[in-house]
Design brief:
The protein is of the alpha/beta class. It has 2 domains: about 130 residues, 3-Layer(aba) Sandwich (Rossmann fold), CATH 3.40.50.720; about 170 residues, Succinyl-CoA synthetase domains (Rossmann fold, 3-Layer(aba) Sandwich), CATH 3.40.50. About 30% of the residues lie in helices and about 20% in strands. The protein has a 7-stranded mixed sheet, with helices on both faces. A 7-stranded mixed sheet has the order 9-8-13-10-14-15-16, sandwiched between helices. Strand 6, helix 5 and strand 7 form a beta-alpha-beta unit.
Length: about 325
């Protein structure tokens, strides 16, 4: 069955290039991705063309890699924040459809430029400042999972689509939906196992990143899960800053999204103008406050919970 990338980027199965593959993080994360099942065909590091990393050929440019492997359609980037803009544009120019930008600290004007550049190209970017994406069909991008063995053990196929602005919450919301006998607060006010061995599992986990100008937004991810036949409910981590949660609420209220959505909304005590946790969590106007988002989401009929472990019981209720 096609994974979530078909609905996010029109990519039925990812065939991937790794930018920065010769660096320490690039090498270790490439090994993890390959062990999980991701098809990595090439790497790209300027000046290192002709080398290999675990048998994967390295090229000086994206264009050279695509010439050697025309089937390449996606890329993940382990490059410094200052190099993300030029590397992403190079990948877009080479015709790659799906890009995962993991770096934190990318300048805001670079994020804006990447988003504008990709919008007219047919390419989509996840991030910056993301742990990536994992699909239980058998591929992952970025930092998610920690190790391939852990990811295979803790992210198991099921019906929950996870969307998050936080890397840590992406992994928590994903893995805990796959844990037998998971304890948590129940709908009747008691605390204990929410389900037995029949856990709901996940279809995919998408971390949109914590920056002010993400490529793929929460709404983009939700619309992809809406189309995904495996997904029965969406578990979402939102917070203050940007209007992503507001846009999601409008789509639910307008009938674009009909599958149930459960949101843990963080940042209740965030003050305006203060960068708390993620750069994108800063409140710049009234529509970006916790109160405004909470009101928009609940008015749209979305279940909002105020503690992370309450997500799981709410998901179970939505599935029932």
């Amino acid at each position: 069955m096609p994974g979530i990338l078909e609905h996010l980027a029109g990519v039925e199965w990812p065939r991937t290039m790794v930018f920065g593959i010769t660096g320490r993080q690039g090498q270790s994360r490439t090994r993890m991705m390959v062990r999980y099942g991701t098809e990595v065909l090439a790497g790209c590091t300027p000046g290192k063309g002709g080398q290999e990393v675990d048998g994967i050929p390295v090229f000086d440019s994206a264009a050279e890699a695509v010439e050697a492997f025309p089937e390449l359609n996606s890329a993940v980037f382990f490059v410094p924040a200052g190099a993300v803009r030029s590397a992403a544009m190079e990948a877009i120019d080479a015709g790659l459809r799906f890009l995962v930008l993991t770096a934190d600290g990318v300048p805001l004007h670079d994020e804006i430029a990447i988003r504008e550049y990709s919008s007219g190209s047919g390419s989509v970017c996840l991030g910056p400042n993301t742990v990536g994406l994992l699909d239980t069909e058998g591929y992952l991008f970025g930092l998610i999972g920690g190790s391939a063995d852990w990811a295979k053990k803790n992210y198991l196929p099921g019906c929950v689509g996870v969307i998050s602005r936080s890397g840590g919450l992406s992994q928590l919301l994903g893995a805990f939906h796959c844990r037998p006998n998971l304890p948590g607060p129940r709908e009747d006010g008691t605390y204990g196992p929410l389900w037995g061995d029949d856990y709901p599992g996940v279809s995919a986990v998408v971390c949109v990143g914590g920056d002010p100008v993400p490529g793929i937004t929460m709404l983009d991810a939700a619309l992809a899960f809406q189309k995904d036949p495996r997904t029965g409910v969406m578990a979402v981590y939102g917070e203050t800053g940007t209007t992503q949660e507001n846009d999601l609420a409008k789509a639910v209220a307008g009938g674009e999204i009909t599958k149930p959505v459960v949101v843990f909304l963080g940042g209740k005590y965030t003050k305006a103008g203060v960068a708390q946790s993620h750069a994108g969590a800063m409140i710049r106007n009234d529509s970006e406050t916790w109160e405004a988002k909470h009101r928009a989401l609940t008015d749209a009929g979305i279940r909002v919970v105020e503690r992370p472990d309450a997500v799981f019981g709410a998901v179970l209720k939505a599935l029932e």
